[in-house]
Every structure is written in structure tokens, then in C-alpha cells.
Design a protein that fits this description.
Number of strands: 4
Distance between the termini: 62 Å
CATH architecture: 2-Layer Sandwich
Number of helices: 5
Helix content: 40-55%
Largest sheet: 4 strands, antiparallel
Strand order of the largest sheet: 1-2-4-3
CATH topology: Muramoyl-pentapeptide Carboxypeptidase, domain 2
Radius of gyration: 17 Å
Strand content: 15-25%
Shape: globular
């Protein structure tokens, strides 16, 4: 085993985070396959989605608590003030729509990359994992709606996130 270092580079840190994200993606895939194999496609997918939703709500509640502890309002802009994902390992960007709306994008997600490597079934089951994002925002602030406008696991070039006020139906 290599000697521990006091400091590592950003690239080394990102590689370690990506390795852990790969393990998470594989765990999700094999849990989902086992559940679906036991319960059947429809009931199994529903249970996987239920578990991912509960996981996402847990994460969203944690972000909510951090933002509240900072004394900040629970806005979409303040969501990132609570720590949700590592700073390293993912590649993010922004896109400006013709109407001027600016949306966050994920240019590289190590979880999605691993699921893509597993082929169409990996992408299909990985797409269930992505419900974590909607659940996180619902728990953080139910007045904020989150949707994947684009998703690499649907064959898009990147993930694009639409975040805004939830329609009240009034």
C-alpha cells in the first residue's frame, strides 16, 4: 500500500471521487437488477424508484438544514450553499436558452458514465437513479420544481436542469 500523503492534487482527488461514484453506480445497478429480478419489472422498478425517492428526500433535507443554519432563504439559488455533492469529479457548466433563462448543466457525471458503460439496461436503470434530483428539491423546498430537461442517460449530450417555481394551479 502506498504511503499516505499530506496533500494530493485536484486531479488525484477527482479520480478518487470518480472511483467512489463508480462504485455507487454499480451498487445501484446491481440492487435494481436484483429487486426487479425478484419482483418483476413493474413492481421492481416502482420499489427502486421509491427507495431512490427516500434517499433523495434525505439528501434534500440535509441541504435544507444547512441553508437554514446559514440563515438564508430556501431559494433555488441558495441550494448550492448546502453541500450535496463533491466539488471534484463532476464537470458542470451553464447554458443560456433563447429566452435568456440560464440553466445548469452536467457535462460529466461519473455515475452516469458508469451506467452508460453497462449498456442500454444500465442506462435504463440508471435513469431511475436520476429521480434523486427531483426528490432532493422537493424535500429542500416543495415550492421549487426540478426537472431534467436533458439527460445523458436518455441519449443527450449532457444533462440540463430546469429549476423554477412550482406552478400552484391558481
Amino acid at each position: 500500500m502506498a504511503e499516505p500523503q499530506d496533500r494530493i492534487s485536484v486531479d488525484e482527488c477527482a479520480a478518487d471521487v470518480r472511483l467512489l461514484a463508480r462504485r455507487l453506480a454499480l451498487l445501484h445497478y446491481y440492487y435494481a437488477e436484483a429487486i426487479i429480478g425478484r419482483l418483476g419489472e413493474e413492481e421492481g422498478r416502482a420499489l427502486v424508484k421509491e427507495a431512490i425517492w427516500a434517499y433523495g428526500r434525505h439528501c434534500g433535507n440535509a441541504v435544507r438544514a444547512e441553508v437554514e443554519a446559514l440563515g438564508l432563504p430556501l431559494t433555488a439559488e441558495n441550494y448550492s450553499r448546502g453541500r450535496d455533492l463533491p466539488r471534484f469529479g463532476w464537470e458542470s457548466g451553464k447554458v443560456t436558452l433563447p429566452n435568456g433563462e440560464v440553466r445548469a448543466t452536467s457535462l460529466f457525471c461519473p455515475i452516469a458514465a458508469t451506467l452508460q458503460e453497462l449498456g442500454p439496461r444500465g442506462m435504463e436503470l440508471g435513469r431511475l437513479y436520476c429521480f434523486v434530483d427531483q426528490a432532493k428539491f422537493e424535500a429542500y423546498n416543495p415550492a421549487i420544481e426540478f426537472a431534467h430537461a436533458r439527460n445523458v442517460l436518455d441519449g443527450d449530450a449532457c444533462c440540463e436542469f430546469a429549476v423554477g417555481a412550482r406552478a400552484t394551479g391558481e
